[in-house]
Amino acid sequence: MKRVLIPYDFSHFSRRALSLAMQGYPFGGDAEVEMLHVIDEALYENVLSRSHVPTEAAIHSYLQADIDRVRADMFDPDSCKIHPIIKVLRGRPADLILEASTTFSAAAVMIGGQGHGGIKEAFIGRTAQRVARESTCHVYVVKTTGTGRPPRRVLCAVDRSPPSRKALEEAHRLAVLNGAKLSIISAIENPYLPYIQKLAMEIHDDEAVKELVQAERERLLKFEIEVLGANKADTHHAVFGPVIETLNSHAEILHAGTIIMGPRGLGPVGRAFLGSVTEQMLLRSRVDVLVVK
After folding, report:
1. What pTM was estimated for this model as a whole?
2. Mind listing the pLDDT tens digit for each residue in 154-188?
3. Residue 155: closest CA among 189, 182, 187
């Protein structure tokens, strides 16, 4: 049985995370779900006053009310067998979420990805960003507030590295478990592509680019067989171009509800636990992102 931790701040993002988890997406209908709310007393001191800090009993009742609301809004409430455990703590949210994911032995954290800190965090909150960066377990960042129904297609981004092997294994498991279609994409930001395109135009022939794409697709198919034992994905996409824009556009074209990837493209020391490409994807993705650790 997998344990899933949901940091809950009563936002539409965290409510959707709760709805997905209670329906067994993406970690199974037998998962044990802990719903954690952290009372950030410093926030009350700075914005309101300590007299406005709610009691733990009050927070517990609010959380239970949201569980009941989420269950009632499901397409088939009676099919939901997951009953979240409620936990309330006081302190700094990111610190306690990371600590709780360890003490709870969580296989994954599902966290809302809204931002509250201005332009730099327009697409992901500071807490979600730090949890995704430092957590040692999988992190599912909810980026949309639409329907609570589980996605019918997932898109796995691979670069044939060891982390992307794990991502592909998890993507296939998730697709099979949830009856979703699986698409695999290899997006390569090739610095020589503009030159190749110019050359192809000069000789009135785009075969050079086509050959590069075909060669990358063959490597992608071979990698899939190495990891899964066969070509099990529904669609395969080998694309040269800006990685983030390519992943976003293909997720939109394919109607994929989740992008799955490993900690890809390791950067400076400050990103020791999360690759720079993955971090940018968390910032700029238009759909949910599952980071496989």
Report:
1. 0.87
2. 999 999 999 999 999 999 999 999 999 999 999 88
3. 182
